[in-house]
Amino acid sequence: MELKENTGWTINEMAQKVAMDIHDGAYVNLGIGIPELVAGYIPEGREVIYHTENGLLGMGKVAEKGEEDFELVNAGKKYITAIPGAAYFHHADSFAMIRGGHIDICVLGAYQVSADGDLANWSTGDPNDVPAVGGAMDLVAGVKTVFVITQHNTKNGESKIVNKCTYPLTGKNVVSRIYTNLAVIDVTDKGLYVKELAPGITFDYLQQNTDARLYQYQTN
Amino acid sequence: MINKVVHSTKEAVAGIFDGATILISGFGEAGSPIELIHALIDKGSKDLTVISNNAGSGNVGLAALIENRQVKKIICSFPRTAISFVFPEMYRSGEIELELVPQGTLAERIRAAGAGIPAFYTPASVNTPLADEKETRIFKGKTYVMEHALNADFSLVKCHAADKYGNLIYNKTARNFGPIMCMAAKTTIVQARKIVEVGQIDPECVITPGIFVKRIVEVSNPADESVLVAEKRRYPWN
């Protein structure tokens, strides 16, 4: 079956799905790019504190034009703001929060996720690329729950959810849940279970467009 | 009498020798000690090993130091940004060596150096290429990789305010690597936006206690790297 572009949920709808799964009171680290959208969809009545690994707990919105402070940036080096009650700290403390298991949830992008929850999101292994890793390996090693938000397939139609990652790993067996434009998928000890399908997407269609084996939760 | 204040960036970087290992603060432009780096370019010390989170932008600051062929090796976590081209080009042509380190491991290796800890175990990078050929050990059923401290001869750090004892405070997320880099070098050199009288920094609010700092120079209007990059400026100044 031909995979049509823009099938299923939009990026914003995917971000909204992630936001619904972030509990009140959570300390959350959002990766660079699509994960940043999640902050815009936290339901009213929930208070979430955002950590940015370059040294701020209590990250606020992106700075308004003309209000940018060159010394107040997020991990993506965007000019941001700090909320009342925010705290600044140095890098070793910041990664103590991460590695020490103090951050509840992080949301990351992916090149590939495997059936075992292995994540590849820092290098395609192309020798012409300058390798860069940032804080991704520390995040997946230390944060309690790792969510991945990504398009289900690459622009060439290849499945990003694979039996085994072919790109260099960021971490092994670290992802809890995957949010794609086609589905929300739980990574469990027994395999990948489809939690929710995007409107108009059938399980069979999803499986045809997924390299890894998928399972359906039994419904009564 | 203790007075760590020097009167020029030239004086501040005196003694930085060829082959030195240098910690340079900053996360992108935030906290990058551009004026000290430019003084080091003027000085011309060569074969440096630089430890910094990034590898510079445009043709100023750290990128200019690399472009001036003074750096033989960089140890960092993220050596590219949207506007970095000096390092990527030299890396691809084999003119500069890169040791890529996960950001948290980089921070902890620096902190460990300052705290007198030669090595430690971390879960970050286990089962990835960055742990290849490194010693691992299992604690309570989980695998960790051993990482070594990153001691340096010098550190170049930017802060907000300093007193003559070397007590420092920082500004927002420009703090980043500053405090741990001050701890990890034999000679820590700091540029401060202002130098204040002893006693003006509340002891409860001191972020870097003066014991970690050797030299301070006031740079009251430090350049903004992104502005220089947008204006396509190049150091030495074009």
Task: Name the features.
heterodimer; A: 220 residues; alpha/beta; Glutaconate Coenzyme A-transferase; ten-stranded mixed beta sheet; three-stranded mixed beta sheet; 4 helices; 27% strand; globular; B: 238 residues; nine-stranded mixed beta sheet; 23% helix
Explained architecture:
The complex is a heterodimer of chains A (220) and B (238). Chain A has 220 residues and is α/β, with parallel strands linked by helices. Chain A is 15% helix and 27% strand. Chain A has four helices and 13 strands. The radius of gyration of chain A is 18 Å and the shape is globular. The mean pLDDT of chain A is 95. In chain B, a hairpin with a 5-residue loop joins strand 9 and strand 10. Chain B starts with a strand and ends in an 8-residue tail after the last helix. Chain B has 238 residues and is of the alpha/beta class. The mean pLDDT of chain B is 97. Chain B has a single domain, classed as Glutaconate Coenzyme A-transferase, CATH 3.40.1080.10. Chain B contains seven helices and twelve strands. The radius of gyration of chain B is 18 Å and the shape is globular. The chains are: A alpha/beta (220), B alpha/beta (238).
